[in-house]
Protein 1
Amino acid sequence: MEPMVVPVIFMVVTVLLSVALSLDCSGKQDGVYDEGCRSYTKCVNETAVVMFCKPYTAYNRDTYTCDDAFNVPPPCGTYRECSTLSDGAYPDIEMTCRSYYTCNRGKFFGHSLCPSRLVFNQELQVCDWTFNVSKPCGTLPATDLSMSIEEFMTL
């Protein structure tokens, strides 16, 4: 395993476990209560269970389970080319920046969803309110780190 992959995987697992531990399933019916592209959290007998998707699969919101990525609607089922991009996260412009994808050492690490009403802030590398984010994702004037949709589509 490459040196940079371990910290990224550790960070993702830590975040997902903290989400599962914070989900209180007491009194909730069995079902999915938290969704991501590579995992989801469901309540089973009032206990939170994190389900991870196998490689080349993604969470399918239509079937409430992991599925072949080709069967999953955007953004989770969409592959991105990262071979020419710097390490970091990039907004899914065509999804109005409500999700983003991660590249590390030229490899695509999948998509992540922003919480409701937030968009991806590329400058800060976090999901944020639109009034804090530069165009094209937010309402602030574009900065030198931002790009037009046309420029983004040529990457």
Protein 2
Amino acid sequence: MVVTTSDVALADEEVSPEVLESFRKLVQADADLVCPLTDDFLLRFLWAADLDVKKSYHLEYFAARRDFPDVFLLNNPYDYLPIFKSNELGFELNERDPLGRRIFVARIGDMDPSRHKFEDVLQTCLMTMEALSVDPEVQRLGIVVLVDITRFSYKLVRWLTPYKIKVSLKFLQDCIPVKMQALYCVNAPRVFSLTYNAVKPLMKEEFKRKISWHNGDLSSLHKVLPPCVLPKDFGGTKTKDPVDWDSWFGHVLDKAPLFEELRSFGYVSKQES
């Protein structure tokens, strides 16, 4: 994905009171939705949609919680501490990219169906993104994701059922108030094409444009993420440990009270109304 000067300029903008009030009125008009109307809460959605009021409203943040509660209702992050501490499936790098954006590594090739429950994996991803979404810097700049597909296997092809693909795409494309500015897919084996070809027709064009592929010596990756910020696994030259292995997820644990509060909001069922 090419980052344009307009992307950088947008991060420097201020949200006008008129835009914020217009969005607030749109949310208030949804009689079945119970949610906070504070500036801080609404700004997350406006920034995620590049300050487009209508696009902000159509993020399926609460609809996903209503339709897929087992996956999208936030739980207590301390219940998932072993997954966070294992650092097997993902983590945040200490350094930022050249545009100041946080860098996350997702090791989707390392998922083990015999040990990792789909709902638990997605829940840890969801909690991480939710915690990030309240950071004003992340709201403006967004994040980038380094997707490590190195060890993706036929076992994972069989594990990723149509339901899991549908829910995963909903998470990535429609219902998290964080701008994923780029997904750098690294070392995809040939078997991964089976899954990607099944998923690609379901992707939105805007999402497809964020994906780039990097194999071999990873020189193409180093044009967007310089080796000095990367672990050795990705051709990095970082001499100091690139990750705070024991604490990178601390900001997620700190948001446990927020997650509990957010569980009380959402669409009211007809039985409750």
Protein 3
Amino acid sequence: MVIVAFIHPDLGIGGAERLVCDAALALKKQGHIVQIFTSHHDSKHCFNETIDGTLSVKAVADWLPRQTFGRFYAFWAYIRMITVALYLIFLSDYKPDIFICDQISACIPILKLNRQARIIFYCHYPDMLLTKRETLIKKLYRFPIDWLEEFTTGLADTVLVNSNFTSETFHRSFTTLFSIQPKVLYPSLNFESFKQMDTQKRKELIEAYLPPGKEFIFLSINRYERKKNLALCINALKELKKLCLLKTWKKVHLIIAGGYDERVTENKEHYLELRELAVSSGVSENITFVCSITDEQKVALLQTATCLIYTPSNEHFGIVPIEAMYMKCPVIACNSGGPKETVLHKVTGYLCEPKPEHFASSLMTFINGDKITTTMGENGYDRVIKNFSFDAFTLKLDSLSSAHHSIYRKEKEKQHYDGVTKVKGWLQEQVQLCLQCVFAPCLKEKGHY
């Protein structure tokens, strides 16, 4: 049995959060003790497993700001993650054998203060590539953050990535970490969360989003962020309108279901931008915008849709195409990044250049082809079962955790018998006690930790 602590910045709704929950469920299924620590957890904007008692979640340091005057998001994200690590090391009674952190590596030096515990860092994608540096001030602001990311990532005992694409990007971005070979651990699905539902229940869940008389239902599921390129599916629908007869066009409908957080300014702004684009493109009557769907609604939509439109370019992995294929829903995605490893062109869907006319052409094949949705859907289901099953994910993660636990035990025994190490450990404990006296009042202020 291994005691595991997951550390994640913001446990909301997204691909990274889904992976953390699935990893926690996988290790718990194998009999390990698991707890998730995060800087923010909103019971109204999270996955069910984190609020129904399935997974234990501890929110720490939510009293810290997320930004300052609409800026410094990265700085505060790092501070919040470091604070979670400080809580774990100095204040928490939870003593893990293994730390598994993701997205932000800045917490790793703090976690290293636990001398025996092993640290696994899951790199979804280098953070330094997720922002632009258009001004000198932005370059100066990002320089220490980028350096810290690369340095602290190298301190992890093992680095995991979500795809071969991300592995290649890792080496191109972190040039000083050439000796580290990340291990690929594909995200997977917990099939129990994606069961087929009866027609009546499905209709009840999505009737508010789907006008009557619609036969060709196209679906987009992504966060309302500009980098997700959701405008592409609206522009593709505009091009599709040119290809369709009027009577066919009346049967076409697009549902854009996105992760939406009221705290995130970009979510609110981009949602309005997309609605305006739909109106100006003349396709607003054929589009429904939905914010933050539930797990049940997502399953119902995937089960109903003719196909999924997945618009991000160079996506690190992309869990939504996997979810769609498991629900026998074909996928149209950009021919780059993670989807090139998950979607088989003309077998489980289409891989296209990120241009509206290319996506529209692929959409038209589903309108013209009677059995293409069924055939590609079955192919996609078989591919997920063979390559991205929760059982395969569980076995690989469990094997990795057990191997690290074996090293942990050896290190613990070594320190138990090594007199010099014991003295060093005692000195370090005294330092930790002093630091605890400093940080405890801050972390416990107003009961926020």
